[in-house]
Fold:
Amino acid sequence: MRTGPYKLLRDFAQKHPNTRSALEHWYRLIRGRNFRSITELREIFPHADRVEGWTVFNIGGNKARLIVIPFLKVYITLT
Structure:
């Protein structure tokens, strides 16, 4: 999975320090992997969801959501 610029995750973690370790953990697990299906992805991230073509990850025990839009952008929101 192409993760896009790591700087985006770093910048978000700098503004929201309570997400830093969870985002770093997510990045280490996902970097360089190629998932063929949501089922395969859920072997690593059991709470990942597909929503209208996007993949939504709960980060840090649901403190934040990381939304991946294929080939476009990554958004991270606090919950």
